[in-house]
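Hello,

Our lab assistant flagged a job as stuck in the queue for most of the afternoon. It eventually completed. Since we weren't sure the result was trustworthy after the delay, we are filing this so someone can double-check. Below is the sequence as submitted and the structure that was eventually returned. Let us know if re-running is recommended.
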Amino acid sequence: MKKLSNISESVWSDIHQRSNGNTFRKEDSEIVELIKEFIEKHHIKEGEYKINSDFSLDIYRNIMVKPFDISNGKLPFKFGKIDGSIWLSGLNLETLENSPKEVTGDFVIYENKLRNFVGGPEIVGGDFSANVNYNLESLDGSPQIVGKKYSILECRFIKDISGISPEIGGDLEIPSRSKQEFSDEEFRKYSNIKGNIIRK
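-- returned structure --
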């Protein structure tokens, strides 16, 4: 496995400080190896990523996470910023732990096993698409800002909408038939929705 050339000196220095010597702590070493494997499997080129001192990974392009990347129902390590879109669909995710804190493009999490969005990004510049999460009960953990569309189609068992994103720059798409119906006024009570509320 080739050495990642652009792990900065500050990152290596931080790793050595954490390990109190010239070797990694076991957990640090394991995270670095997971990140290396992810970069190689996804053919992410030099200049398209950065490993931060907290062992989070920034990516400067679109990325589609695959089932083989997932560990115990969650992402295997922390992501920092995705400068592009990220697809996390059909992965049986049970939590959004380790998600990027900021995504400049779309954040797509179709067909998972999420009960809420806790651990997800704080800022999504494009669409926040969480359709077909049948276990979804709460919108807690939604991004603080969604630049475009916020979509939760086929999520029919939501009990609490108070955690919806406070700022939605586009439309809100919600299921037309759900166990508990919420009115347009209730959604707009919790969110500044710039677009329309669309029921499908």
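-- support follow-up --
The delay was a queue issue, not a problem with the job. The result is valid. Residues 56-199 form one domain. The first strand starts at residue 49 and ends at 51.
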